[in-house]
Amino acid sequence: KLVVYQMDGTEVRQISLVDTPNCLALLPNGGILLGMRDHVEEIDDEGAPKSTWESLGAKAHITSITADEKNVYVADAGQRRVFCFNHNGKVIGQIGEKDEQRGIPGFVVPSPYFDVALDPQGALWVVNPGKHGLESYRPNGDLITSWYRPSMELKGFCGCCNPIHIAFRSDGSLVTAEKGISRIKLYAPDQEFIGLVAGPDAFGERPEAGMAIDLESPLKDLAVDSKDRILVLDSRQGSIRVFEEIKERS
Question: 212-233 pLDDT, tens per residue?
């Protein structure tokens, strides 16, 4: 099912689905895109089917979708690249395949965690989880910039593949989610570490336990709302966790 809520948590509607999607995104026209394992399906806001997009093949494992006014970007962890579609569901390009001449390192995706997001300026960012960082691309696949933070320190990313989810706030700051040690962190637009939003204790884990060997993370997705609150889909609690910045008193 797809469940729609108002921002105060009131349920608006439930939409029955014929299969279980891995991810979803909204089109500017209100259409809803569902990322199945190997293809994308579009439905309207009442759940009526609109179209089924072409399959990305037997090796595909779609994990994330984001869309702007022109393009739809679909992250495929199975084939380790991002497919660019137009709004009619036609593939118009691929992003991230290793190309030394163009300075593209190639995505390292050891497990099915591979996220994409658009920043407030509309730039596309893709997580390179095996390299513990992010890369920004133009729609034609040109690499704009990249940054990586492999480290056991709090300001960096550790484990086989992190971060697993990203989202941007309106000021351009980046929110990240990690597995192994479940935590949500915040980075400034210049990639400087700002601080910890929520640590493993907030997700039912003991901080002193270190990295979990279980590859399955309770942090299923991450988003930022119009008030810059951080929304975390927590499968361990079966709820959407809402984190709001505490303003310091003067």
Answer: 655 578 999 999 999 999 999 9
